[in-house]
């Protein structure tokens, strides 16, 4: 049987061409749920971190009894009264010694004669600022001397309290030791400040304080204002805890019903010793920060 010529010569038709993948529409995938959940998680994390940061800052400021804010206000008022700008601060740091002399600087006079070195004269605001800054340093020195006197008197009272047999109650003794450590740290910081701040009258060091005062952001944990407040903060804690020591001595001794001696368990005694050691360690950490800051200035 022979096939017909038309059928024998016929070739199979090629398969239809497949369209390229680029021309095909993408599958519809809904990302609304995933992106919405991601945004919610990011908002929660951001809010939590901001809340933790704010709460920790406020706790730390209350731990410092908010005393650094007082020094910040005092220093900022000095710079605001002088109306110093950033160029003035730079000029203050580069000024020569003779430019600060009122007799040689024509900025102190009401009538000023044009001279060739007019560009080198200092503005009157800087000269007034120098006077205010020196008065501020003198006030700080007198404050720290007073705090040192109070610290010495407080330490003598605490040592007298520890020598009384009736003051052997754990609360009285622990509060007395805590107050003694705080008073000792305040005295140590005050002595260092009195020695070192005598050189802070120089204007290039005052310019460093000006830069610190005009910063929009600064570390809350350690800055110039915390540095200035250290003697007052530790003395305030020493006085406050000494009040606790006095009241515990009043209420826990002197009666026939009060036990003569109270022995602590080894675990309780260890906890008190660790707590007092931590307080002393915090004082040493602040001391190292103070020394490092003075090296920078």
Instruction: Please give the domain count.
Output: 1
Helix content: 55-70%
Rg, alpha carbons: 36 Å
- In total, how many beta strands? 0
N to C succession of SSEs: HHHHHHHHH
Anisotropy-based shape: flat
- Our count of helices gives 9
In percent terms, what proportion of residues is strand? under 5%
What class do helices, strands and sheet pairing give?
A: mainly alpha
Distance between the termini: 114 Å
Q: Please summarize the sheet with the most strands.
A: none
Overall average residue pLDDT = 79
Low-pLDDT residue spans: 1-10, 104-119
Keywords: Membrane, Transmembrane, Transmembrane helix
Transmembrane segments: 146-164, 176-195, 224-252, 272-291
Blueprint of the fold:
Blueprint: H1 5-8, H2 32-63, H3 67-82, H4 86-94, H5 124-162, H6 170-196, H7 203-213, H8 224-251, H9 266-296
Helix pairs in contact: 3-5, 3-8, 4-7, 5-6, 5-8, 6-8, 6-9
Structure in words:
By secondary structure, this protein is mainly α. The chain has one domain. It has helices at 5-8, 32-63, 67-82, 86-94, 124-162, 170-196, 203-213, 224-251, 266-296. Helix 6 (170-196) runs parallel beside helix 9 (266-296). The longest helix is centred in the middle third of the chain and has 39 residues, at 124-162. Mean pLDDT is 79; it is low at 1-10 and 104-119.
Features:
single chain, flat, 297 residues, mainly alpha
What is the gist of this entry?
The chain is mainly alpha-helical and 297 residues long. Helix content is 66%, strand content 0%.
């Amino acid at each position: 049987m022979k096939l017909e010529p038309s059928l024998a010569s016929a070739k199979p038709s090629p398969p239809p061409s497949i369209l390229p993948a680029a021309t095909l529409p993408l599958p519809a995938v809904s990302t609304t749920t995933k992106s919405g959940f991601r945004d919610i998680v990011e908002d929660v994390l951001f809010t939590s971190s901001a809340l933790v940061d704010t709460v920790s800052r406020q706790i730390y400021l209350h731990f410092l009894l908010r005393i650094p804010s007082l020094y910040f206000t005092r220093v900022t008022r000095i710079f605001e009264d002088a109306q110093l700008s950033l160029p003035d601060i730079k000029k203050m740091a580069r000024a020569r010694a003779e430019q600060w002399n009122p007799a040689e600087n024509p900025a102190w006079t009401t009538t000023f004669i044009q001279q060739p070195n007019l560009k080198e004269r200092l503005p009157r605001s800087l000269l007034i600022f120098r006077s205010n800054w020196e008065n501020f340093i003198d006030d700080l020195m007198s404050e720290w001397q007073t705090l040192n006197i109070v610290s010495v008197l407080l330490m003598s009272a605490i040592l007298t309290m520890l020598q009384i047999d009736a003051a052997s109650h754990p609360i009285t003794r622990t509060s007395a030791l805590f107050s003694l450590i705080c008073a000792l740290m305040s005295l140590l910081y005050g002595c260092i400040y009195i020695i070192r701040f005598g050189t802070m009258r120089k204007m290039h060091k005052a310019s460093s304080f000006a830069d610190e005062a005009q910063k929009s952001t600064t570390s809350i944990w350690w800055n110039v204002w915390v540095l200035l407040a250290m003697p007052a903060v530790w003395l305030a804690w020493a006085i406050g805890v000494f009040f606790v020591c006095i009241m515990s001595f009043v209420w826990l001794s002197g009666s026939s019903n009060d036990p003569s001696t109270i022995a602590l368990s080894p675990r309780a005694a260890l906890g008190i010793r660790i707590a007092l050691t931590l307080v002393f360690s915090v004082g040493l950490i602040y001391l190292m920060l103070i020394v490092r800051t003075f090296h920078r200035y």
